[in-house]
Amino acid sequence: MALKLPRTIRLDPSDTFVYSRAAEPGEWAVSGTFLFFGIDPETLAGKKRQAFRAGFLGIESFGWSTLVVVTEVKAEERAAAVERLAEQLVEHCGAPDLDTARPAAEEEIAFAQSLCDHPPNTLLALHRASEQTGIREAFRTLRPKVGRLDMATAFNVVEIDEENDRMEGVDIRALAGRHT
User: Fold this and answer.
1) If DSSP codes are grouped into helix, strand and coil, which group holds residue 64?
2) How many Å is the maximal CA-CA distance in the chain?
3) Can you give the residue range of the structural domain that contains 33?
């Protein structure tokens, strides 16, 4: 069975406008929710709020990406992703050293890998919300029908109810069929 991880993808330049730091296309990615632990999401505004709501974290740049794509990965690449994330946890998150950071990085990469139980080239989108019990993540998939993805399919499907901070019954797979 092939190993797969999410990789950042940019179908248009919008990530460079909506996030304070956009991930570069092609980076290995994790959900990045750990960066929001201990923060009241209600205090977030603008680009930080957008990162909370919909961003995957690119592990090379520590920037955000709205979409990731399921990509096959070699064991060596996966190990390098764990190591790079551990380095970032030391640099950006206060982990005392690599030996302490590696298990956390491994756990994040393993979770990211668990999201990739889909064919290669499947797009993944994420929506985070704050609830009384903590942060809730919801993941959606979008698969191209004819081997390519139409940008309109990916970016004209999600409406967010700003007052209630939730997505209203969006089924990306069903919507993808409408645009082909």
Assistant:
1) strand
2) 50
3) 3-145
| Banded pLDDT at 32 (limits 50, 70, 90) | very high
Residue 175 maps to a domain = no
CA distances from 73 to 4, 5, 7, 69, 130 (A): 5, 6, 10, 12, 32
156 found inside a domain: no
Evaluate whether residue 150 is within a structural domain: no
Q: Tell how many helices (H) and how many strands (E) occur in the chain.
A: 6, 9
Domain count for the chain: 1
Residue 180 pLDDT > 80: no
170: in domain: no
Tell me the per-residue pLDDT of 150-169, one tens digit each, with 9 for 90 and over: 544 444 433 344 444 444 34
